[in-house]
UniProtKB/TrEMBL annotation:
It catalyses: 3'-dephospho-CoA + ATP = ADP + CoA + H(+). Its main location: cytoplasm. Catalyzes the phosphorylation of the 3'-hydroxyl group of dephosphocoenzyme A to form coenzyme A. It is an enzyme of class 2 (transferase). This is Dephospho-CoA kinase. GO terms for molecular function: dephospho-CoA kinase activity. Keywords: ATP-binding, Coenzyme A biosynthesis, Cytoplasm, Kinase, Nucleotide-binding, Transferase. It comes from the Bacteria. The gene is coaE. InterPro entries: Depp_CoAkinase, P-loop_NTPase. CDD domains: DPCK. Belongs to the CoaE family.
Length: 196
C-alpha cells in the first residue's frame, strides 16, 4: 500500500512521519528531496539562480533557503516560478525512491508530500492520511519553530490550501492539537484500520 502523508505547514507531518518510521515503515520525504535536487552543481539550482538572481545563493554556493523562502511565500507569481523549476525534479526522485523501497520488498511505503492536494498528486498514492491542527495552534507552532512574526506565519499558511479542504479529501485524519501520545494513539488506530 502506498500512503500519502500530508497536511498543512507545521501541522505535524514530520512528527507523524517519525512515528511511522519507528514502526519500520519506509517514508519518502518530499521536503528532504527538495533539498537534494538543489545541491550545488545541479541544473535545478542553476535555473533558480537564473530566475531569482544571486541573492538566491549563499556565499558557499548553496541555496539561501531563508532568502528564497521570503521571496516565494510573499509573492505567488515567484512561488509558481520556483514550483515550475523544482517540482518536476522532486516528483521524479519521489517515484524513484518509492520504487527502490518496493523493489527491496517493502509492502507499504509512505510518501510524505506537503503539497499533495495543491499539486493534485492523488494518483501517486492509494490512501491519503492528513495531519490536521486548528489554525491557532498551527500559527503558534510555525512562529515558534521558524522564528517568524505572526504576519509571516499567516502568509505561509495562506500559501497553501485550507486544512479543512484537505481533511475532506482524506481517507483518515490525525488531529495533532493534543499531546504527542494522543497523536501516537491515532496513528496506531489508523494503521490497524488499514491492516498495516
Ligand atoms: C521555499 C524553501 C526554500 C524554504 O525552505 P525552508 O527550509 O525554510 O522550509 P522547508 O523546505 O523545510 O519547507 C517547510 C514547509 O513549507 C511549505 N512549503 C515549501 N515550499 C512550498 C511551496 N512552494 N508552496 C507552498 N508551501 C510550501 C511546506 O509545507 C513545507 O513542508 C523550500 O521550502 C523550497 O525549496 N520549496 C520549494 C519546494 C517545495 O515545493 N517543497 C514542498 C513540497 S515538495
Ligand atoms: N502534538 C504536538 N505537541 C506539541 N508540539 C508539536 C506537536 N506536533 C508537532 N509539534 C511541533 O510543531 C512544529 C511543527 O511540527 P512538524 O515539524 O512535525 O510539522 P510539519 O507538518 O512537518 O511542518 P512543515 O510543513 O513545515 O514541514 C514542530 O516544532 C513540532 O515539534
Amino acid at each position: 500500500m502506498i500512503i500519502g502523508l500530508t497536511g498543512s505547514i507545521a501541522s505535524g507531518k514530520s512528527t507523524v512521519a517519525k512515528m511511522l518510521k519507528e514502526r519500520n515503515l519506509p517514508v519518502v520525504d518530499a521536503d528532504q528531496i527538495a533539498r537534494l535536487v538543489v545541491k550545488p552543481g545541479t541544473p535545478v539550482l542553476k535555473s533558480i539562480e537564473e530566475v531569482f538572481g544571486p541573492e538566491a545563493l549563499k556565499e558557499d554556493g548553496t541555496m539561501d533557503r531563508a532568502a528564497v523562502g521570503k521571496m516565494i511565500f510573499e509573492d505567488s507569481a515567484k512561488r509558481e516560478k520556483l514550483n515550475a523549476i523544482i517540482h518536476p525534479a522532486i516528483r521524479k526522485e519521489l517515484v524513484a525512491q518509492k520504487e527502490a523501497h518496493l523493489a527491496a520488498g517493502a509492502k507499504t511505503v509512505v510518501l510524505d508530500i506537503p503539497l499533495l492536494f495543491e499539486n493534485k498528486l492523488h494518483d501517486y498514492v492509494e490512501k491519503i492520511l492528513v495531519v490536521s491542527v486548528t489554525p491557532e495552534v498551527q500559527k503558534d507552532r510555525l512562529m515558534n519553530r521558524n522564528q517568524l512574526s505572526e504576519q509571516e506565519a499567516v502568509t505561509r499558511i495562506d500559501s497553501q490550501l485550507p486544512i479543512a479542504v484537505k481533511e475532506k479529501g482524506a481517507d483518515a485524519v490525525i488531529f495533532n492539537n493534543g499531546t504527542i501520545e494522543e497523536t501516537e494513539r491515532q496513528v496506531a488506530d489508523v494503521l490497524k484500520k488499514w491492516n498495516v
